[in-house]
Amino acid sequence: MSRPRVGVITGLKREAACLRREGDRGYDIRSGAGPIAAARAAREALAAGCRGLVSFGFAGALSPELTAGALIVPETVIGLGGERWRTDEAWRRRVLSTSPDALTAPLLGIDAVVGSPAAKSALAAGTGAIAVDTESHAVARIAWEAGVPFLAVRAVSDAAGDALPGWLLASLDERGEVRPLAFAAALLRDPRRLAAVLTLFRGSRRALARLRALAASGALGRP
Question: How many of the other CB atoms lie within 10 Å of CB of 166?
Answer without folding.
Answer: 11
